Amino acid sequence: MNTRRTFLKSAAAASIAFHTLPIIGAEVTKKYRTALIGSGWWGMNILREAAASGRIKTVALCDVHEEKLIHGFEDVKGDSGDEPKKYKDYRELLEKEKPEIVIIATPDHWHALQAIAACKAGSHVYLEKPTGHTVNESRAIVKAAKDAGVIVQVGLHRRIGPHHVEAMNFLKSGAVGKVGMVRCFAHSKGGPELPKPNSAPPEGLDWDMYCGPAPLRPFNSKIHPGGFRNFLDFANGTMGDWGVHWLDQVIWWSGEKGPKRIFCTGGRDIAGPAISNATEQTTDSPDHQLATFEFEQFTATWEHRKFADNNAEKHKIGAYFYGEKGTLHIGWKDGWTFYPVNEKTKIEHGNSQLQEPDGHNIALLWEDFIEAIDKKRKPIADIESAHRSSCLPMLGMLSWKAGRSIQWDAEKEQIIGDEAANAMLSRAYRGPWEYPKV
Amino acid sequence: MKLFTLLLLLTTTALAHDWPQWRGPQRNGISDEKGWSAKWPATGPKVAWKASVGIGFSSFSVADGRVFTTGNADNTDTVYCFDAASGKELWKHAYPADLGDKYFEGGTSGTPTVSGDQVFQLSRWGDLFCLNAVTGKVVWTKNVQKETSARIPDWGYAGSVLVQENLLILNIGGAGLAVDKTNGNIVWKSDDKDAGYSTPLPFKHGEDSLVLVSSGKGYNAVKTKTGEPVWSFEWGTRYGVNAADPVVSGDQIFISSGYNKGCALVKFGETTPVWQSKELKNQMALSVLLEGHLYGFDGDNGSSRSPLKCVDFATGTLKWDDKTIGPGALTMADGKLIILTGKGELIVAKATPEKFDVISRAPVLTGKCWTVPVLANGHIFCRNAIGDVVCLDVRAK
Question: What is the ipTM of this complex?
Fold first, then answer.
């Protein structure tokens, strides 16, 4: 057992070493003119990792909140000496700067319009996950990338994180046996939520543009900065955030296009009813959700709970792959662990290998992106497969909103025999924004 | 003169080294207490008592044998009053308050302020209390946010209450808010802008009594009595987090923020700094100034890479740094640093620009510790984020 583990580890190490080798040739000095749309915390984190690769020149930043632009500019200038131009409107940025690479790190509801515009402008795109807010937005990005012939890498860094690669090699080696069920989850503690008063948007924030194609609602600091994920106008809650990472491991492992049937239940039984009125708001995403994805050969589930924590089990986040020979857990900081059925077989474990300061593996994903552009190859989290992974939480949320199970045709990307549910693959945009065409 | 001294002795039972408010009697983070024991066995100082107060980052105030702190459980804030020596709970006062756990554990931020026989507490959401320090009975209460419709900054109001004669000065609005100490009536308020997270700091400029208040965009000086703006220094920070109180020496003001912003020494009234650098970025745990040197943690509380540094106040030059213990928070007494690290180790070290010179160290808490420890009357009070409180006996043997 130890021998195999050592082998797997060195195999993973070798594949990482390959990624970090400098690329020999003239291209190595090429610095891509890069723009960032959404220069908040996470966008700046991606940009920092991107700049550390030595392969970009930051030419522009875009944010609807002036403060994010000013501090983003200061950070870029301090770190690299680049002096990016500042934009409040991504359309103006694309037109004036014609960047070779665009990083998109805005809330989900903006992903499609911005990614499609960037593709049309001929830019390669690093798009933060999930790909879209509704399924047809995500499909439209796939089409736009294909039409433009550009590379779109999605921020699903768990496809390249060393301990994920190790665990996936272990899984594919047959050590877990045939897998019949996968359980993906993220649990934390929490309790009832109280509303917070609405207020005027902070100075320098274009709140109308922040809401963009989503409904305009009163400003509340629970939403911005950084709270959008728990407001369903802008994102899909914990399932759209953490869920997409772990459900992506299922797609990555199985190579499946999608599930056949989806059913999702959940609610805000602990957080309490969502409040949104002229004077105050709470978040409105479910405090717990259980989604079942029935595939041809196996069943996958997503569950999250923002109360009770998860001290009854060993792990609080990740995916359990249940096979004939045991349970493989792939986690975050706790690495991966295999719990064999046979008690005489040794438990196997691989530590996480994360990069600071964010505790993920963005640098590796960025290197892969640059190499894909250099060599004109498909990146590891290319838009088409990332779209398929992103569909899982979006379909889960659709089922939860519809209150019924749905049958999914993954080839045609349509819900079978349920026109009302099919209509929910898109949503109405607030004018003048137009829902992208597939 | 003798009569005056006698009267003082009769009218107050205050112990020699009380710590009645955030950052202590002088608001500089330094206690004038001497003779406490800085040498302990490897197991640490003797534990006098322990308590559990709920989630939060509120520090301690100590006066007249009572210690006050706060925490949150079940969306309820509680102000606790313990007997400082025995840890016996003397009273508590609870009120509804959202945990507010965006990006962190949430819970209470401000530290109760003791003034005479009253204690004042401001919640993150604007609930203001005047409590009787002996009984815990509510003298008056109101929600100043609701009354003024002031904006709540992203993480709520974090500054503690500053008492100035008959006024309570609060960090609410773009440059503070003042209410009457006796009834909570609004006396003056500032523009409807995002407040910062520091505690208003009294500042004398010539004959003028001023307060320094941080906003989301900088640091402002206003007249204590009227709130009239006198000076402002633009200091924008990512997320509008200006949380550290200024550190003042004469008319020179040290300003520092985290999120990779940096620090600056500013002369009062000027708009360009004397010096500015990224050497000592205080996010929440602020620096202490002793004999021309700043001691503090450089970097965010949540970062594993926030070294302890000693920096020359006048020039911003680094004297030494220690990368092994940060992040953490510190106070000072008798020329020594009293440090609680982010992981709950209590360290006493000499406060000297020569080197980081540890005298004693011992683990006293587990879990995340962002709250500055307090020394008062031979006891050190420490807490962690989930609200475990430990009182350590460091009285001279």
Answer: 0.71
